[in-house]
Specification:
With 328 residues, the chain is α/β, with parallel strands linked by helices. It folds into 2 domains: 150 residues, 3-Layer(aba) Sandwich (Rossmann fold), CATH 3.40.50; 162 residues, Lactate dehydrogenase/glycoside hydrolase, family 4, C-terminal (L-2-Hydroxyisocaproate Dehydrogenase, Chain A, domain 2, Alpha-Beta Complex). It contains 11 helices and 14 strands. Bound molecules: 1,4-dihydronicotinamide adenine dinucleotide. 1,4-dihydronicotinamide adenine dinucleotide binds next to helix 1. Belongs to the LDH/MDH superfamily. MDH type 2 family.
Length: 328
């Protein structure tokens, strides 16, 4: 039998955690033949709730789940981790300035980066979900100097999936007919969902849709503001869809993108497409054998250039702000 893969999940007692853990344990993260051991990290006040979730995991009798351990200490939680899903974060509360938010999250992602550096397995793959996800990933990464930078990623797969759903609806097709959609930049309202290289049943999506007003006034804002619309409707932020996107992100990273397609992941920039080196920005990415590559050579039109530059400028501002705070 195979050795179980250690999956560390932070914020395990939160609402995304509740939607995520059962799917990991059932084999949807890594594959139906890969046993997993869950290592849950929570703050001390939430450990009891995490224990309750662990009882329910027991009660599912998942054949692939070889154990659940719960920690309130990051060093222990990341020991031997092969996959780390960093979901727990400090949300923005009323009256909180952006600097306060970045500082509070620095207090979470700096020690977690250090713990990953100290004890994670050599093949560690990190996905940051907790917001501001790109910059939290940057903070964690900068405190894990011994871990290759490409192992730290942030989630824009929910944005990608949201964009697929909107485009499929507009075109009257199934999401399965769509390829090569891209989310560029920051997981924030400035993100740019790009359909200029996307394909609908093999034909260029932007040309097929041929509706620039829809693109600018409907599609882009709907995707970018979807999180707020969910909160408005549900009275709580997206949880099951976020968990589903986290499953997709890691599954694609580990198992590869399909021939003729790509996905969106926020990864460390090598300077591609004018994104300053070192920023963790969303790109079109292919994956193979557990490694990702930024898709090269795409022609970026003027409209896309402006949108990408605006989102990347926001990432650079966030980086400068955390640098000023001494967090990176
Ligand atoms: P939640 O508030 O329900 O759960 C967060 C959990 O994290 C809580 O149980 C809390 O105790 C825990 N936590 C806080 N500090 C921690 C620490 N230092 N170590 C371990 N656990 C810690 O929040 P929810 O809805 O589960 O969302 C989690 C994060 O995901 C938020 O930051 C949210 O903004 C973000 N998010 C990101 C998305 C993306 O597309 N990248 C989409 C949706 C949400």
């Amino acid at each position: 039998t195979r050795t179980p893969v250690n999956v560390t999940v932070t914020g395990a007692a939160g609402q995304i955690g509740y939607a995520l853990l059962f799917r990991i344990a059932s084999g949807q993260l890594l594959g139906a033949d890969v046993p997993v051991r869950l290592r849950l990290l929570e703050i001390p006040q939430a450990v009891k709730a995490a224990e309750g979730t662990a009882m329910e995991l027991d009660d599912c009798a998942f054949p692939l789940l070889s154990g659940v351990d719960i920690f309130d200490d990051a060093t222990k939680a990341f020991e031997g981790a092969n996959v780390a899903l960093l979901v727990g974060a400090r949300p923005r509360t009323k009256g909180m300035e952006r600097g306060d938010l970045l500082e509070a999250n620095g207090g979470i992602f700096k020690p977690q980066g250090e713990a990953i550096n100290a004890g994670a397995a050599d093949d560690i793959k990190v996905l940051v979900v907790g917001n501001p996800a790109n910059t939290n990933a940057l903070i964690a990464r900068s405190h894990a100097p011994d871990v290759p930078a490409e192992r730290f990623t942030a989630m824009t797969r929910l944005d990608h999936n949201r964009a697929l759903a909107q485009l499929a609806r507009k075109a009257g097709v199934s999401v399965a007919d769509l390829r090569k959609l891209t989310i560029w930049g920051n997981h924030s309202a400035t993100q740019y969902p790009d359909i200029f290289h996307a394909e609908i049943a093999g034909k260029n999506a932007a040309e097929t849709v041929n509706d620039q007003a829809w693109l600018e006034n409907d599609f882009i804002p709907t995707v970018a503001k979807r999180g707020a619309a969910i909160i408005e409707a549900r009275g709580a932020s997206s949880a099951a869809s976020a968990a589903s996107a986290a499953i997709d992100h890691v599954h694609t990273w580990v198992n590869g993108t399909a021939e003729g397609d790509w996905t969106s992941m926020a990864v460390v920039s090598d300077g591609s497409y004018g994104v300053p080196e070192g920023l963790i920005s969303s790109f079109p990415v292919t994956t193979k054998d557990g490694a990702w590559e930024i898709v090269q050579g795409l022609e970026i039109n003027e409209f896309s250039r402006g949108r990408i530059d605006a989102s990347v400028a926001e990432l650079a501002e966030e980086r400068d702000a955390v640098r000023k705070l001494g967090l990176i």
